[in-house]
Amino acid sequence: MLGTDSETYYKWGFELVAVWSGHLDPGDGVMWDISPGAIGNAPLPDPADYESFYDFEEGGDWGTGHAVNPVTGLPYEPQIVPRGDYTRALAEFWADGPDSETPPGHWFVIANHVSDDPRLVRRVGGEGATVDPLEWDVKLYLALGGAMHDAAVSAWGVKGHYDYVRPISAIRYLSDRGQSSSISMPRHHSEGITLHPGAIERVSRETTAAGQRHAHLAGHEGKVAVRAWRGPDAIGNPESDAAGVGWILAESWWPYQRPTFVTPPFAGYVSGHSTFSRAGATILALFTGSEFFPGGVGEFPCPRGEFLVFEDGPSVDLTLQWATYYDASDQTSLSRIWGGIHPPADDLPGRHMGQRIGTDAFERARGLFVGSEQGE
Length: 376
Fold this sequence. Notes:
By secondary structure, this protein is mainly alpha-helical. The protein has helices spanning 7-20, 50-53, 83-93, 103-116, 133-162, 167-177, 272-288, 325-338, 344-370, and strands at 31-33, 80-82, 200-202, 224-229, 245-249, 298-302, 318-322.
């Protein structure tokens, strides 16, 4: 990608990951309404619009939320919380590491909650007669399991073919090369990182002077610094400490995860989370006959000081909320960018793949249900 026509997009994506790492501090004063009335409802863009889909500086996407809950007919109640708590909770909730139900398994957990909701009407595809819970569960698991399997085959086939780099490698490599913003500035290199004032900067004698923003980086003049999550070394006691955000050397940049949770040993492109989640959301929407959760909202509480695992947080009680299954899926994808695991280049192609995979898997399963594919 470097040295090709795609170089600018390559750098932009990994620089966005570095900038969004600076959103992981609940004490920065930025407050967001994280209710379905303010976020979500983000149509998937075509490739030409990929860059405009994301807010490079502030985070998030072009979704504007839902005007009303279609079940109650009322607006969703605002939920104003620190952005840094929301982003950290998202990254933790959707991480699904080795000791969890895994990313595809997460969608079975969501499906179980939907199936157990007393407001759900069990009509397969939203049509016809209601079915008993056993028939519903068997058919839903067949459709969802097929979609998750197909998503894994597709995503990991693409990963094996393209072998695309992860942010921790790309950000460190670009910054090690230097800066590419100005040929008149020191340490210019065409493969260097692009400087973004206030987020990605060159360390200089002026910025390391006493009282200046890079003072603690004195001795590293000429290198590149990023304003990002400070990493696990800044956490002494995970039950009481939070790393926070500050200026660190880009060569030491960390994803938002525990130090023992290594970067996955397989390529980034495409994002498995994005592919699995969009496929799962598509199955649930088609299977239930509605894009919306029962009652018009799905929720998961994140209690203050109890939810995060490897640092203290969140600093306030908050509840992750989704109006539609697609909103939940989209939050999954964004969580991997805030978590430092994927750039946008991994994300949206995976979502588009998941949409098609989920649709095809549902049609395949429905054909088996009605007997049109018996004997195949």
